[in-house]
Amino acid sequence: MSTTTRTARRSVARRAGESAFGVLLLARYLFMGLLALLIVTAGALASWDTARDAMSPGDLPQGSLTLSACADDGCTGVFEPSGATVRLVQPIGREPGDTLDVAVHQDTGEAIRTGLPGVLYSWLPLMGALLLAAIVIGGGLRMYRTATGTGAAALLALGLTFALWI
């Protein structure tokens, strides 16, 4: 009995096709990875200006804002300690009489909410970007556990934001 093994030689066309398929798979992973990174970066950049002031007001005057009038796009009120009338831009309605901790941009007269609710609210664009990136990670990269973790973290932060905001 002979134990001769025969190796079948693949054709040039088949080897080229397998190489091209590998290159396409690599290109898909690179493209989807860059897309997810771009989405998260855009969300972070959109959040940064407001989040920076909410997390560390620095030289901005800080105090409390007592709301006097509210509309769908924001509220106005008296800022203490200066007594100036400032505007708090927010899509979530408040009632006149509420008092919030804020920092005020003196050149625009707009208030930014500080504290944990203000910080979470300022990072909302990043949270939305993480939700969108979770879809790209799960669907495009086939990294289901990572996508589930990313989406769950973003949903938890969104829920906490609205629980603290109201």
TrEMBL record:
<feature type="transmembrane region" description="Helical">
    <location>
        <begin position="120"/>
        <end position="141"/>
    </location>
</feature>
<keyword id="KW-0812">Transmembrane</keyword>
<protein>
    <submittedName>
        <fullName>Uncharacterized protein</fullName>
    </submittedName>
</protein>
<feature type="transmembrane region" description="Helical">
    <location>
        <begin position="21"/>
        <end position="48"/>
    </location>
</feature>
<keyword id="KW-1133">Transmembrane helix</keyword>
<keyword id="KW-0472">Membrane</keyword>
<feature type="transmembrane region" description="Helical">
    <location>
        <begin position="148"/>
        <end position="165"/>
    </location>
</feature>
